[in-house]
Design goal:
CATH topology of the largest domain: de novo design (two linked rop proteins)
Strand order of the largest sheet: 2-1-3-4
Strand content: 5-15%
Number of strands: 9
Distance between the termini: 74 Å
Helix content: 55-70%
Order of helices and strands: HEHHEHEEHHHHHEHHEEHHHHEE
Number of helices: 15
Shape: elongated
CATH class of the largest domain: Mainly Alpha
Low-confidence stretches: 1-25, 152-167, 359-365
Number of domains: 2
CATH superfamily of the largest domain: VKOR domain
Mean pLDDT: 76
Structural class: alpha/beta
CATH architecture of the largest domain: Up-down Bundle
Length: 365
C-alpha cells in the first residue's frame, strides 16, 4: 500500500515544537482514534479546525488522532478496510468519519457531540487502543520507523509544518476555497452576478425615468409585503441561530453552520447579521405600509425612501454573498434565499411605486 499522507492532529493543528510520537509516556491512559477526511469537504474542515483542536489542547498526549486523507489511493484503501471491519453501514459511508475503539462517529454534528464523552470514559477505563482496522498496524509501524530515522533537526522542522490538506480555510487560496463546495459556490457566484446586474439596472432605470415612479399593478400590493415577511422569517431564523448557538437546519448544498459561526456573522462585534436583516425587513414593511396607507401628500414626498432602503439592502447582501465562496469557503442557503428576496424587492420598488387604494395618479419623488 502506498504511503498515506497523515499526521497526528496535535501536530497538524497546533504546529508543536516537539517531533510527533506514537509511543507516549508510560502509565498514562491514552485514547487513540482515526479520522478519515477529505481536503475538499467543508464538514471535515469544520471538524479539523473548530471541533477537535480544543480537545487536543485539553488532553495533550493522552489523545492521539491519526488523520487519513481518503482522496489518496492508500487512504481510500484503508477506509474501505475500515468499512468492512467495523462495519460502516452504506448509509453512513462518508467523511468526516472518526473511529475510536469499536465506535464510529460520522459528520460534523455527531463527532463534536459524542467524542468528548467517549474520551472521558476511555481515559477512566485505562485508555482506548487503536481501532482494529486491517492495515492500520502497518501504518503505525511505518510512522514509528520514520520517527526513529529522523534527526532532531529534521523532526523539529517537520513538526512545525502545517500540511496543505489540513490547513485552515483562512490560509487557503481562492481556488481552494471554491473547491470545497463547487455546487454551492457556483450558486453563490451566480446569485452574486445577478445582484450586481440588478444594482446597475436600478441606477440606470431610475436615472432614465427622471426619478419618476409609476403606480404598479394590483398584485404588487401583496407581492411586496409577502416577500418582506418571508425575508423577515429567514432573517429571524438566522438571528436565532447566531444568538443561541443552535445548529442551523441546512439542505444538501452548502454549510450554514460554518457561515453562521464565522467572524462575519456579527457586525462590529455586537449585532448579529441575521438580526440586522430582520430589522431591515421590518423597516421595508413599515415603509410599504406608509406609502400604501399614509397621508397621500407626505407619502408621495417620501416615496424614494422604500427603494433607497431596499437598494442598500441589496448592496449589503451582495457583500455578504461575496464573502461566502471567496472568504469563508462555505455558503448558507438561508442567506442566499434572503439575497434573492431582497433582489426581487429591488425590481419591484425601482420599477413601480406602491399603488394607493383610492388613486392611480403617478407619484413622483
Amino acid at each position: 500500500m502506498r504511503r498515506i499522507p497523515l499526521l497526528f492532529l496535535l501536530l497538524a493543528l497546533f504546529a508543536a515544537t516537539l517531533p510527533p510520537t506514537v509511543a507516549l509516556a508510560q502509565n498514562e491512559p491514552v485514547v487513540h482514534a482515526v479520522l478519515f477526511y477529505s481536503p475538499t469537504c467543508p464538514h471535515c474542515h469544520k471538524v479539523l479546525n473548530e471541533d477537535l483542536p480544543p480537545l487536543v489542547q485539553k488532553y495533550g498526549d493522552q489523545l492521539q488522532i491519526l488523520l487519513i486523507d481518503v482522496t489518496t489511493e492508500g487512504g481510500r484503501e484503508l477506509y474501505l478496510s475500515a468499512a468492512e471491519a467495523i462495519p460502516i453501514p452504506e448509509n453512513k459511508r462518508g467523511v468526516p468519519a472518526l473511529v475510536v475503539g469499536d465506535t464510529l462517529l460520522v459528520g460534523d454534528v455527531e463527532i463534536p457531540e459524542k467524542f468528548p464523552g467517549i474520551i472521558e470514559q476511555g481515559l477512566a477505563a485505562g485508555g482506548i487502543d487503536w481501532p482494529d482496522i486491517p492495515g492500520l498496524d502497518r501504518v503505525i509501524k511505518d510512522i514509528e520507523a520514520r520517527q526513529a530515522s529522523e534527526t532532531p533537526e529534521s523532526s523539529s522542522e517537520g513538526a512545525n509544518m502545517n500540511p496543505a490538506d489540513v490547513k485552515a480555510i483562512s490560509e487557503m487560496s481562492v481556488s481552494e476555497r471554491l473547491a470545497l463546495d463547487p455546487v454551492g459556490n457556483a450558486i453563490a457566484i451566480i446569485t452574486l452576478i445577478i445582484m450586481i446586474a440588478m444594482l446597475v439596472w436600478a441606477l440606470v432605470y431610475w436615472a432614465r425615468s427622471g426619478l419618476t415612479l409609476t403606480p404598479g399593478p394590483g398584485w404588487i400590493n401583496w407581492a411586496t409585503p409577502i416577500l418582506s415577511l418571508l425575508g423577515a422569517g429567514v432573517a429571524f431564523y438566522l438571528a436565532f441561530v447566531e444568538t443561541t448557538g443552535a445548529r442551523a437546519v441546512c439542505g444538501p448544498v452548502g454549510d450554514c453552520n460554518v457561515v453562521q459561526q464565522s467572524d462575519f456573522a456579527v457586525l462590529f462585534g455586537i449585532l448579529p447579521v441575521g438580526m440586522a436583516g430582520f430589522i431591515g425587513y421590518l423597516v421595508i414593511l413599515a415603509l410599504w405600509a406608509w406609502q400604501r396607507f399614509g397621508p397621500e401628500e407626505q407619502a408621495a414626498k417620501t416615496a424614494w425612501l422604500l427603494p433607497f432602503v431596499i437598494y442598500f439592502g441589496v448592496v449589503f447582501s451582495t457583500y455578504l454573498t461575496f464573502l461566502e465562496p471567496f472568504v469563508i469557503g462555505a455558503i448558507c442557503m438561508w442567506c442566499v434565499t434572503s439575497a434573492w428576496i431582497m433582489t426581487a424587492l429591488l425590481f419591484l420598488t425601482f420599477r413601480w411605486t406602491i399603488p394607493r387604494p383610492t388613486t392611480s395618479r403617478p407619484i413622483t419623488s
